[in-house]
Amino acid sequence: MASAGAEFFLFFYYFPDVRSMTEVSLSQDIDASAAKPLGMILASPGFLKSPGRQVNKHVIYFDKFLNKLIRQLSKEYVKKKATVSSSLPVN
Description:
Order of helices and strands: EEH
Number of helices: 1
Oligomer: single chain
Shape: elongated
Strand content: 15-25%
Number of strands: 2
Strand order of the largest sheet: 1-2
Largest sheet: 2 strands, antiparallel
Number of domains: 1
C-alpha cells in the first residue's frame, strides 16, 4: 500500500504498568535448606497516575499476589501431607 502511494493509517496502543521485582523465600526458621529465593515480577496498572495513587493501586495488586501465593503454598502442603500419610504403613 505504501509503495502504491495509497493512504493508510497505523494504529497501536500501549498501556504502561508499574512493575516490582520481588524475591520470595521461606525463613531459615521454617526451611533449613539453603534454597535460593524465587524471583518474581509483580505488575499493576496505573502508571500514568500520580505517584501516591500508583502506590495505592500497586498495594492492592501486591496484596492479591501474596494471597494467591499463600493459597498455592497451602495447596502444595495439603498435597504433600496427603501423599506422605498415604505412604505410611497402616497397622
